[in-house]
Amino acid sequence: MRDLSALMDALGYTFQNQELLEQALTHSSYANEHGIPSNERLEFLGDSVLNLIAGEYLFSLDDSDEGSLSKRRASIVCEKALASYSAEMHVGDYLLLGKGERSSGGAQRESTLEDAFESIVAAIYLDGGMEAARQFALPRLQQELQTKKQHRFNDYKTLLQEIIQQNPEEKLQYVLVNESGPDHNKKFTVEVHLNSNVIGHGKGKSKKEAEQLAAKEALALMGY
Question: Do residues 119 and 39 make contact, with C-beta atoms less than 8 angstroms apart?
Answer without folding.
Answer: yes
